[in-house]
Specification:
Blueprint (H helix, E strand, L loop, with lengths): L2 E2 L2 E4 L2 E6 L4 E8 L6 E4 L1 E8 L2 E8 L10 E6 L2 E6 L5 E13 L2 E10 L8 E3 L1 H4 L3 E3 L12 H8 L10 E6 L5 H12 L3 E6 L3 E4 L6 E4 L3 E2 L5 E4 L6 H13 L3 E2 L3 H8 L1 H10 L7 E5 L4 H7 L5 E5 L8 E4 L2 H13 L3 E6 L7 E8 L2 E9 L14 E4 L4 H13 L4 E9 L2 E8 L5 H7 L3 H13 L11
Parallel strand pairs: 2-13, 4-12, 5-11, 14-15, 14-19, 19-20
Antiparallel strand pairs: 1-2, 3-4, 5-12, 6-7, 7-8, 9-10, 10-11, 16-17, 17-18, 21-24, 22-23, 22-24, 25-26, 25-28, 26-27, 28-29
Helix pairs in contact: 3-11, 4-5
Length: 466
């Protein structure tokens, strides 16, 4: 262990341990630029014990792994407003614990924060190092390294007990980031998660004993809730399955009726307008004869032409001139397709807002920007996303849109115009990767929490006063 006078030299990353928390090894990022130390925590719950405020939380001690979970409990010593590296301020609980690093052992303060989106499960700040350590950022593991075999010995036999709900995820692709995150988030909170491929489910329609079956003849009669993530091409059958579960008194986080009406672009726009939600001026037609009138209806070119069944930017064309608009509309005529013609909001400059709404609250929001040469902000087509602070008006618009369509979980897309925010679209199966990556928020965990609240389920805490 290198020393400089009475101080120990440490590198940019070091191993440490917290015996009182049941954490024999955690890799820490050593950061003298950060004042307070922080440790990764989720499922953070405040409770009372012997007349004092305590906090229960869970930790993923291993980097890049959500499988290992350690439950911890400590007294709360403070509650502070902390600004993260992304510039966002949040209120965090503060605890005190004994840290062991090399041959050193002392008490430090730790703020509790979800660090899943960051590389290290712990950050060692300058207050904890003051008077004890000097940092050489060119070095690593000056206090000793820990091998994969040692980590396996430390954590290999720990298992997270499932004592919660049984939740089905009704979707199509189990490998999709969003679906994996939802499965992980449910398991982290002690629930039994079951992936249900829509195409491999079938139903028994019966007034007295309705049933839902899965491949191999398994009867799905013990589910507490179902998370509906139905791809557009499977809307009809997926919503039929959701109705079947609802008929069996299984809670669906987005109901069959809400998903159905959100997928009908024309009906959803009419419904939203009826409830006072502002949208860009829009025309609708089925293979129109009066092309010119349809173009003038929305203020002329430039304008957007959309196929009614299009998704994720497919079937969406920008017509910059009247002649181009006529060509596109006439091409769609040949397909005998239903189409929307919508005014082009030039001042938006290819940017829009994605607001993630859960239970009537905007829990996260990002700004999406179109890739060079594209007119529409779309992460599936090379666009970029960044943090954004939305206005109270934009927040109210997103909440109202989700509520109007009856969606408990929704991705609401908004565009900023010279006349104020306008609604573009409401997605009943919004993706999680972009918004979780940019904001660092555990959106999947919030979805699971929504189910817990609806069904009245709570994490069980240890201790007689928990």
């Amino acid at each position: 262990m290198p020393t400089s006078g009475t101080k120990v030299v440490v590198g940019s990353e070091e191993w440490c341990a917290f015996p009182e928390l049941g954490l024999p090894a955690v890799k820490a990022r050593v950061d003298s630029g950060a004042k307070t130390s922080s440790i990764h925590a989720f499922n953070i719950l405040k409770f009372r014990r012997d007349g004092e405020n305590w906090v229960s939380f869970e930790v993923h001690p291993l980097q890049n792994s959500r499988r290992m979970i350690v439950r911890c409990e400590r007294p709360i010593i403070d509650k502070r407003l902390v600004k993260s590296s992304s510039g966002i301020s949040e209120t965090r609980y503060v605890i005190s614990a004994t840290i062991m690093a090399g041959n050193l052992s002392w008490d430090i303060e730790l703020t509790l924060a979800n660090r899943d989106s960051m590389g290290f499960r712990m950050l060692l700040g300058r207050e904890a190092m003051k008077g004890r350590m000097l940092v050489d950022p060119s070095l690593s593991f000056c206090l000793g390294d820990i091998s994969a075999e040692q980590l396996s010995e430390y954590y290999g036999k720990k298992e997270h007990k499932k004592s919660g709900l049984k939740i089905g995820l009704l979707a199509s692709n189990q490998e999709l980031y969003s679906n994996q995150r939802i499965m992980e988030a449910g398991e982290e909170r002690g629930h039994e998660m079951v992936f249900l491929n829509i195409k491999q489910c079938y139903m028994k329609i019966d007034a007295l004993e309705p049933e839902a079956h899965y491949r191999g003849g398994k009867i799905l009669d013990d589910l507490d809730a179902v998370i509906t993530r139905i791809r557009p091409s499977l809307t009809f059958y997926g919503c039929a399955l959701a109705r079947q579960f609802e008929g069996m008194n299984v809670f669906t986080i987005n109901s069959s009726s809400a998903v159905t009406q959100s997928r009908d672009k024309l009906f959803s726009l009419q419904l939203l307008l009826k409830h006072g939600v502002s949208i860009p001026t829009t025309g609708f037609a089925n293979s129109p004869m009066d092309t010119n009138d349809l173009i003038e209806m929305v203020g002329g070119a430039p304008l957007i032409v959309k196929l009614l069944e299009g998704t994720q930017g497919r079937g969406v064309v920008l017509a910059e001139t009247k002649k181009a608009a006529e060509s596109v509309i006439n091409a769609f005529k040949a397909l005998r397709a239903n189409l929307l013609v919508q005014e082009f909001i030039k001042e938006a400059e290819g940017k829009d807002l994605r607001c993630f709404v859960i239970d009537g609250k905007v829990v996260a929001s990002i700004q999406r920007e179109a890739a060079p040469g594209e007119f529409r902000a779309n992460l599936h087509q090379g666009g970029t996303a960044s943090m954004v602070k939305i206005t109270p008006t934009e927040k109210a618009l997103a909440i109202k849109a989700a509520k109007t369509l009856g969606l408990r979980v929704a991705g609401v897309d908004i565009i900023r115009s010279k006349n104020g925010p306008l609604l573009l679209e409401v997605n009943s199966s919004p993706g999680l990767e972009g918004i979780e990556t940019v904001t660092g928020k555990d959106i999947a965990g919030m979805m699971i929490t929504s189910i817990e609240k609806k069904l009245g389920w709570k994490i069980q805490l240890s201790g007689e006063n928990a």
